[in-house]
Structures are given as C-alpha cells and as structure tokens.
From TrEMBL:
The keyword Iron does not apply. InterPro entries: LigD_pol_dom, NHEJ_LigD, PaeLigD_Pol-like. The gene is ligD. Its EC number is 6.5.1.1. Keywords: Ligase. Pfam families: LigD_Prim-Pol (PF21686). Residues 45-283 form the DNA ligase D polymerase domain. This is Non-homologous end-joining DNA ligase. One of its GO terms (molecular function) is DNA ligase (ATP) activity.
C-alpha cells in the first residue's frame, strides 16, 4: 500500500526546510515585499509561498509544465481583492511564456504557460494563489491528454459521499479500460483524473466525458446531477464534465488555493483516499510535497478506444 505522508502542522518556514536565509531571492527571482502576509490566519508570507513553490516544483511541473494556465491572483493576500487572469498583460514576469490562441469569438488571445521552477516562483511574486491548467499541452492544444471529472458536492452532502462517488467514477472508467487518479481539490470535492494519449480532439473527449457522467446520473439520479443548474444540485453531487473542453481548466496538482486555511490541491492514491476526511486537509505549512508517493503510475499510456466510442454513439474527431 502506497502512503502519502501528512506531516503535523508547523511553522511554514520550518515546513519549507527550516529556512534560515532571509534573502528575498528564491530560485533566481527577486521578491518584492517578501514579508507581505498572504494568509493571515496561518501567517503565510509571500516568501513562504515562493519557498513552497520552489520545493514543490519537482512534483508540480510534470502535471503543469507546458500547459496553458489560468491564474487566481491576490496581490494583497487572500483576504483582500483577488482576480482571475487567463491572458497575458503588461508587467507579467518574463518567466511566464506566452502563446497566441485562436478564440471562439474570433481573433487571437495571448495565453500563459510555465516551464520551470523559476516560473512557479515568479507566480508567487505576483501574488498567484491558484494555478488552473488546460487539459492539453502547448505543442498541440487541440488534442487533450487528460480527462477530468470534478465531483462537486452540494453543501449538504458529506465528504464520505464524495469519496464514494469518486470510487464509483473510478470503477466506471476502469470498465472502459482507463486508470484514474484522485485529486483532493483543496475545496469541497475530488477531481478524478485520467491521463490520455493524444489521439482525439476536444469534441470527442468532451462527448465521452458527458456520456459517462450522464450514465452515472441515470443509474443514481438521487445522488448525482450532470447539469450546471444549481437548483437541481440540492442534496446531490454535480459531476462536472465541462472541464473537458477547449479553454476550460482545472486546479493543478499541488497548487495552493485562495481559501481559508491555506489549503492545497493534493494528489492521493485510491487506497489512501478512504482515510481522508475532507478535501482540504493538506495545507501550506503542514504538508510536504517531497514526501508524496501518489500517482506513481500516472504516466502510463492509455486512451479512448474506438470500439467504446462507437458503443456510445460518439463520432470520433
């Protein structure tokens, strides 16, 4: 049984490696206002976040590198004004790379992506508290190589029901020959993630995700819903398959969240999930990414099968 070690909470600076050097330069990035508090309750500073990004980068980059990213920025900290940014703008660090992407409404939009540790630390420098990633990489943005189901519970639904839903989704995917991996979102829910070989374009992958979500709803309509209508979600778990389309994004593994308690989006294994009692138990200052052994087989090659698509009446693109 693989283990994911959740270390006891302690000062962020200690958890980041008992940093003694008060330098404001991390991974070659000069931090302005390094002592600025980003999470007041935990006393997490910009320097603390930058140190975390540096130490987590070896684990985070395999899932985030060369994917277009959307950012939640809170330059003055979580408790102050935050904003969502997906396009490049003046003053962005040079460690952010840019890609012109044709948009649905016409024209080109300049999107951002990160390639290395310096890019992650630069994100901390500009107050990025969340990194959300596309399901495709920049060398072929039209063909996704990951599938994501966001299990988003109504507030009345306990986390044990979300765990059960994740295992149910795992079993449905396994029946179609797909291994999957659970990600605690750092919020209320769980993402079930499948790596894919890049064979089909976005419409095909989304149609497959929709078919699986609707199948689960048909099997248990009292537990699941697959529509965005909040009125229909009461007492149910929303199976959000809409993240599997061009331009959509999902929280990156190991990303911080701009939420109370400084939680992290954290990958676990299926045998570990049963011992987890909330989606936000891993926190900045109390969780060591270098102790993680989850998702070791994530890179295994697998894809949607033509026979499966035909059986679901999905036209491959």
């Amino acid at each position: 049984m693989k283990q994911v070690r959740r270390v006891a909470p302690k000062a962020v600076e200690e958890a980041a490696g008992q940093v003694k050097n008060k330098s404001s330069v991390i991974a070659g990035i000069s931090l302005s206002h390094p002592e600025r508090i980003l999470f007041k309750e935990q006393g997490v500073t910009k320097r603390d976040l930058a140190v975390y990004m540096e130490q987590a980068s070896g684990h985070m980059l395999p899932y985030l590198k060369d994917r277009l990213v959307s950012l939640v920025r809170c330059p003055q900290g979580r408790a102050k004004q935050c904003f969502f940014q997906r396009h490049g703008s003046a003053g962005m660090p040079q460690q952010f790379h840019r890609l012109d992407v044709h948009q649905k409404k016409g024209g080109e939009g300049e999107y951002l992506y990160i390639r290395d540790t310096a890019g992650l630390v630069a994100a901390a420098q500009i107050g990025v508290l969340e990194l959300h990633i596309w399901g495709s990489r920049v060398d072929d943005i039209e063909r996704p190589n990951r599938l994501v189901f966001d299990l988003d519970p109504d507030p009345t639904v306990g986390f044990e029901k979300v765990r059960e839903a994740a295992v149910h989704m795992h079993d449905v995917l396994e029946a179609h020959g797909l291994a999957s991996f659970p990600l605690l979102t750092g919020g209320k829910g769980i993402h079930v993630v499948c790596p894919l070989v890049r064979r089909y374009r976005w419409p095909t992958v989304k149609a497959f995700a929709k078919a699986l979500a609707e199948h689960m709803v048909e099997d248990d309509p009292g537990r699941y819903v697959a529509t965005m209508s909040k009125a229909k979600r009461k007492g149910r778990i929303f199976i959000d398959y809409f993240r599997n389309e061009r331009g959509a994004s999902a929280i990156a593994p190991f990303s911080p969240r701009a939420r109370k308690g400084a939680p992290l989006a954290w990958p676990v294994d299926w045998d570990e999930l049963g011992s987890i009692d909330a989606a936000d138990v891993f926190r900045l200052g109390g969780s060591d990414p270098q102790a993680v052994s989850a998702w070791e087989s994530y890179g295994s090659r697998q894809g949607l099968k033509a026979a499966t698509l035909r059986a679901l009446d999905i036209e491959a693109d």
